[in-house]
Task: structure prediction
Amino acid sequence: MKFLVIGGDAAGMSAASRAKRNKPDLEVTVLEKTDDVSYSACGMPYNIADADRPMDDLVVRQAHVFKTKQKINVLTGHCAESVNPENRTVSGVSADGTAFQFGYDKLLIATGGSPIIPDLPGFDLPGVMALKSLEDGRKIKAYLKAHQVKKAVIIGMGYIGLEMCESLRARSVETAMVKPGPVFLPWMAPELSDVIRQELESNHVKLHTGYQIERIKSEEGRMKVICADISLDADIVIAAIGIKPNSELAADAGIKLSVNNAIATDCMLKTSDENIYAAGDCADAYHVVTDEKTWIPLALRANRAGWGVADNICGKVVELSGIAGTAVFKVFDLEVARTGLTLKEALKSGFDPAAVIIKTRSRAHAHPGSSPIRILMIGDKKSGRLLGVQMVGWEGVAHRINAAAVALQNRMTVEAFSQTDLAYAPPFGPVWDPLLTTANQLLKKI
Result:
């Protein structure tokens, strides 16, 4: 059997490697349009912070290692341009301009996502960059090295943009963020997002919300980000507005799309074509709280979905239960985490939500080094189910959110979660863990 993979990202290489382990005699070919496969994309902002650290430190495994050790035919510089489901072929062109065509019995589309770049004047200037691929990281790092970058403007205030603030400030770059929307973090409760805002401002990051970007212009060797009411000087501009799924290849082949134009898949990662699967940032998933389709591109899901595809094409039936949208990121010394639904999402999905916000401590009250933790917890008044959790604090957040994620995955009620036997020791938390305290308060409302 011929297993063909389009895309050498986390989902693609996880699928290729696991399929080869499952069936060593399987013919596995991976088509990757760039020169990079198998790298830690999430580590790029932190790598950029260190001027002396090579970006290639983030490479987990080179393409030639897959070829020699696992006998996977990894072809870098091969851009797939069309899929013919009727003939089961994929056509494209390699970096040297040579046309190619590969046949398949089973196909995985793992084309990932692309940064959203506004169709506005100046976004094609050399100093305007996005951060998605390893090559993007190399370009940003090379630009910082080659130019006297004193000022940066980040357009957007998502995860990548917030992480890049720390990287740029670590390199003594004056940093400002700007976005058209009037709310800093619209998905987060203001009582929590205000803490993040204060952390950014205390580290001399300037925030400009509610400013519509009109264009970027080059002026005497520098750039200006022109908005409706202000203009911001910049030596480098980072476009961090978000990403979109690379689903055009699938759509052109007649494969059905889903929410946010992600490729529609079932619990076995199969698309509307029985011989074609999709996984990673290009594909949708089911949300474990709502049971509805969603598109939340996250690294663990990409890897797990790759494994699922490999098992299914090799005859082991695997169904993925879905995702809770669990995410964590760092803003200077602050830890920020979320899982499940926001209050707005809960209302939209037909729940009757109640929410509480508490401020507590990361350690027992008499233990030195304790710091504040703020938690938002949402539950459903009708069923009592836990629906979502958000947390902000200087310690004890990043791993604590996992308890809430497990509860969501298992459809626990707030009451059941409040009875869980969580660990206690003074250096790590109060007797009543912050999550349990919040759950007890939420019970009073539902």
